[in-house]
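Appendix C. Worked example: Glycosyltransferase
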Amino acid sequence: MAILDWFKNLFFGASEPFSDAGTFFVWEPCSKSHSEVVPGYAKYLLDLGYKVSVIVNPEKLKEGVFCRFSDPNLILNSISRSKARKFFLKKGLANAKGILVTTVGKLSNGRDYNGAYEFFAKKLPGQKTLFVEHEIKPAVDGGTWDENIITLRKPDYKGAKSVVVNPHYFGNVRITNKSEDIVKFIVVGALQDKRRDCSIILSAFEKLIDRGITNVKLIAVGKGAVNLPEKIKPYVELKGSLPFKDMYDEVEKADFFLTSYEPDFAPHLRYITTGTSGAFQLVYGFLKPVVIQEKFAPINGFNGKNSVIYSDSSSYSEALERCVKMSAGEYGKMQANLKALADEIYAQSLLALKELIEK
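Step 2, the predicted output written as structure tokens:
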């Protein structure tokens, strides 16, 4: 029945999302970002024994955010945000067990959680309303933070507590070994001339080529434009913004995942204090060792055994060289350690979500 509903909704549209007793809604009200977390949250709820009725922007479904993931108890509703809002305003949660909203900031501006709870106008006893917040600073600073709200990672800001449930499941993922010929690095996100992290990565690649290390390829996925130095143009592929299906494919084929956070650059500090990065979900889910600055590693679970750590931007190129020269055996051990981390995060997250629902 679920598969038939999925095809009906996908090709003919739906007037309202599917639900029945035992169903949990998972709604991503943001039409531009954060959709990559939805499969992971749906997976947790399926593992807890619920049917899951997903409401996500129709374009994100077309882009393949669930292209690697199917389940008889998973219903994907191709319904716009406006139609979903009208449904919830009129019927609350209908007869569903509850709802998990994966970006509550779209309902609360990061502050008014009481208003967000009231939006769903509970009608049945035992229904649960769960929210995910991607940036806790406005609520913590404003005194409206709710410790029952879910975050993707443990926050480190003014003693704030949350329920940590990290979504890093994307479906059927092929775990690949290190390439034997061309070592592939991937960066996912805007790679633009005006961004500091762009210059760090490109400068490191330029130094790598200057040292005669040319069996490399940099894959850049994300919107924006960048002027590449002539000497590294043969070693860089600018893919631009890709649909989820193609982005998943590129991550799967890569060997290492690049980040370039700087501890002395204020906008980057949110990745260790009040928020997190979608890059880490891809690292955990696809088991791609990440190249990361040492200050940003520990709170996200990374260390020298599961990742490649560097001290500052001047040593970034040396970190890339370590990746290139890493043996297949060393790479395999690093992936195994990364899998252990991802499995631990998954188990802890599943338990935390179960306890929150039963609370």
